[in-house]
């Protein structure tokens, strides 16, 4: 392990100096049990050195967790870090504006969204596309930014999940005040959907233990896919058996609640319809 230089011969400081000072200050102000560093994975050696120095110098108690959580880079089609058209580094504000404008363009002729709501919808769709597109990948992996892929209503995208929620909203609206209560399992597709829901607790625990939100993204997507299979196999609104219809509506409502919970944890807002 290379040694850490805390002070240079000319008495100037470097990153290691300020990082160690930050650890001292955080420990003084907050006495944290855990300190997580979410930083570019290329900085792993640097923080390994800093943490080793902090331990040896007893800057934090032995019980304090110091963990490096390295993340990959968002790349362009050429496999290199994503840049603007003129070759500069893409600012987050510019990225958000690009995706929001793309969303707004797609909503121009939409009959489901009123003109006064389009900007709000465009912002929510754009943020869903960016956040889900980023978090679906394991944090340590690099990935390609593809606007068309991120904005697709099919596949593993935030837009697809928002569409699933809006589809369930439409079902519940058409059903009106019909009583919704689970009463049993009538088809294979609803059994599969229920099993996906039952496994959600394990998925959340794994995501927390590994500090990896991609597991939550994947589970949300799998719930949406399972619901799609259930929806296409069963004609919920037109089901003549009231007991089945009530149970299926309850399952649809529960699915919506579960997916929204996933999205809320990921920081993604839903829309009423699409």
Helix fraction bin:
40-55%
CATH top-level class of the largest domain: Mainly Alpha
**N-end to C-end Cα span:** 55 Å
What fraction of residues sit in β-strands? 5-15%
Class from secondary-structure proportions: mainly alpha
Could you name the CATH topology of the largest domain?
Isoleucyl-tRNA Synthetase, Domain 1
CATH superfamily of the largest domain: Isoleucyl-tRNA Synthetase, Domain 1
Described by strand count, sense and barrel closure, the largest sheet is: 2 strands, parallel
Number of strands: 4
Judging by the overall fold, what is the CATH architecture of the largest domain?
A: Orthogonal Bundle
| Distinct helical segment count | 10
Sum up the overall morphology in one term: elongated
* Uncertain residue segments: none
**Total domains, how many?**
2
Secondary-structure element string: HEHEEHHEHHHHHH
Round the mean pLDDT to the nearest integer and report it.
91
Which sequence of strands runs across the widest sheet? Answer: 1-2
Q: How big is the Rg?
A: 24 Å
Verbal overview:
By secondary structure, the chain is mainly α. The chain has 2 domains: 15-71; 92-265, Orthogonal Bundle (Isoleucyl-tRNA Synthetase, Domain 1), CATH 1.10.730. It is 55% helix and 7% strand. It has helices spanning 15-30, 44-56, 92-106, 118-135, 147-150, 158-175, 188-198, 200-210, 214-233, 242-265, and strands spanning 34-40, 65-71, 74-75, 143-144. Strands 1-2 form a two-stranded parallel sheet. Strands 3-4 form a two-stranded parallel ribbon. Helix 2 (44-56) links the parallel strand 1 and strand 2. Helix 1 packs across helix 2, helix 6 (158-175) runs antiparallel to helix 10 and helix 7 packs parallel to helix 10 (242-265). The longest helix is centred in the C-terminal third of the chain and has 24 residues, at 242-265. The protein is elongated, with a radius of gyration of 24 Å. The termini are far apart. The model has no long low-confidence stretch (mean pLDDT 91).
């Amino acid at each position: 392990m290379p040694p850490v230089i805390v002070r240079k011969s000319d008495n100037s400081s470097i990153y290691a100096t300020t990082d160690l000072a930050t650890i001292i200050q955080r420990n003084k102000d907050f006495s944290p049990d855990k300190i997580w560093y979410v930083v570019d994975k290329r900085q792993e050696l640097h923080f390994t050195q800093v943490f080793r120095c902090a331990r040896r110098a007893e800057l934090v108690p032995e019980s304090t967790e110091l963990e490096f959580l390295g993340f990959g880079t968002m790349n362009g089609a050429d496999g290199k870090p994503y840049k603007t058209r003129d070759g500069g580094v893409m600012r987050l504000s510019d990225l958000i504006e690009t995706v929001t404008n793309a969303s707004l363009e797609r909503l121009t002729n939409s009959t489901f969204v009123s003109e006064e709501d389009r900007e709000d919808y465009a912002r929510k769709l754009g943020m869903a596309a960016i956040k889900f597109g980023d978090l679906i990948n394991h944090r340590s992996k690099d990935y390609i930014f593809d606007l068309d892929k991120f904005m697709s209503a099919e596949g593993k995208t935030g837009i697809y999940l928002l569409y699933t929620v809006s589809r369930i909203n439409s079902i519940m609206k058409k059903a009106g005040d019909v009583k919704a209560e689970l009463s049993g399992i009538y088809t294979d597709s609803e059994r599969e959907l229920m099993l996906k829901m039952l496994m959600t607790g394990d998925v959340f625990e794994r995501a927390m233990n590994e500090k990896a939100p991609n597991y939550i993204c994947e589970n949300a997507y799998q719930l949406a896919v399972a619901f799609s299979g259930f929806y296409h196999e069963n004609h919920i609104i037109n089901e003549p058996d009231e007991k089945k219809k009530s149970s299926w509506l309850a399952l649809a409502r529960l699915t919506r609640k579960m997916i929204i919970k996933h999205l809320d944890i990921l920081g993604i807002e839903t829309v009423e319809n699409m």
